[in-house]
Amino acid sequence: xxxxxxxxxxxxxxxxxxxxxxxxxxxxxxxxxxxxxxxxxxxxxxxxxxxxxxxxxxxxxxxxxxxxxxxxxxxxxxxxxxxxxxxxxxxxxxxxxxxxxxxxxxxxxxxxxxxxxxxxxxxxxxxxxxxxxxxxxxxxxxxxxxxxxxxxxxxxxxxxxxxxxxxxxxxxxxxxxxxxxxxxxxxxxxxxxxxxxxxxxxxxxxxxxxxxxxxxxxxxxxxxxxxxxxxxxxxxxxxxxxxxxxxxxxxxxxxxxxxxxxxxxxxxxxxxxxxxxxxxxxxxxxxxxxxxxxxxxxxxxxxxxxxxxxxxxxxxxxxxxxxxxxxxxxxxxxxxxxxxxxxxxxxxxxxxxxxxxxxxxxxxxxxxxxxxxxxxxxxxxxxxxxxxxxxxxxxxxxxxxxxxxxxxxxxxxxxxxxxxxxxxxxxxxxxxxxxxxxxxxxxxxxxxxxxxxxxxxxxxxxxxxxxxxxxxxxxxxxxxxxxxxxxxxxxxxxxxxxxxxxxxxxxxxxxx
Length: 512
Known about the structure:
It is built from 14 helices and 30 strands. The chain has 512 residues and is α/β, with parallel strands linked by helices. Strands 11, 12, 13, 14, 15, 21, 22, 23 and 26 form a nine-stranded mixed sheet that branches. An eight-stranded mixed sheet has the order 1-6-7-8-10-9-4-5, with helices on both faces. Strands 2-3-17-20-16 form a five-stranded mixed sheet, with helices on one face. Helix 1 (8-17) runs antiparallel to helix 3 (109-118) and helix 9 (344-353) packs antiparallel against helix 10 (386-399).
């Protein structure tokens, strides 16, 4: 039996009747994703053929033969013959001029509900003439065979751009579906001069949009959900000439240790009907949630439509060029200032670097902070070479006179374990000054290690945190840590050096 384009309420009811999840207090649907509580990056493949040979960054994308893909596709289709399936015909992209028609076929009702939240729903009359341009088949209970299908285990995410098909097998983690759509758009849009971005975005009352790049844990979702501005979207956007538009119609936010005080808009969605909560701990008797419990996963997630956020855009589109770009990093080494102004060349350098740091304790045996570099702030989803995206971003920043800022939401006064987390109140105040234009006019100093401009004083902010070295008791320890971080940046950038101009190479940090 196949269910076509069921509404959210119907999908919710089916998921409950099929015992796919539990209804929590106030109405969210709580589900478990089993062994996979995050993306299976090592099991994602792109078919290498005449279509992709010269356009895909093969150093970063695992290749798959057309024959292996054909075998996997054949076996998955055979598996569906006696299965109940759910189909959603949706749009990837809120801008009608650039959106992609994507048909998603899933094995469970809750996955259909998830993706209906996350992508853009066509109007009822649009479904009459809807023709899919890409199809995603998601069968979490189907197990791939490495010898027959060319993978390494029972889990596979296989993208075939020539056949415009994505196959997802052996994982219930719903994020694989939405990230597959992001991967598709990342491949297609640059050919049209559109910059695809792993970012959140919002817009002020005067139409001044802002873009927030950042890896998981840097505050991208939290800081863009600003009650004084309209949220365009939470995670994935395109920057075309004249518009910034959401790829999605929903949000997929981290739930672990969510605070009703620091993230009130997002927290409120955990008490709304139909929100899908992945791997959140729930008391089976009282049905109360424990957002602080990471027993099932550190990466617990919530999926909900953007309409659940009071200040969210109803169109997902902002007109005009962005006024500000924010690159977020959580520097656990305590070296970077809380905010710095970047030139277009520095912006490209830091965009290609995609730096943040993981703290000790998140993985067994890890006792020190570790640097993470994810190019373009979304390396796993970038089919093309990073320089294509970096050049496109740099050129748009320069041509449209966009102010670009590097914001550290990590540690101050020392590295993780010694210093403290950057106060969110100070981060919000610095962002407000950047977004209203006043920070660009402030007095600045050049950072001796990274060469970018750092404000000397900002009204309403404890100015002592603006110079990270001054917050360390042991200045020699700061200098040593800064030297180490600079070396990490330089080493990571070696693979890009021959693909960028001299201006970007000159934007590299250099220890004082």
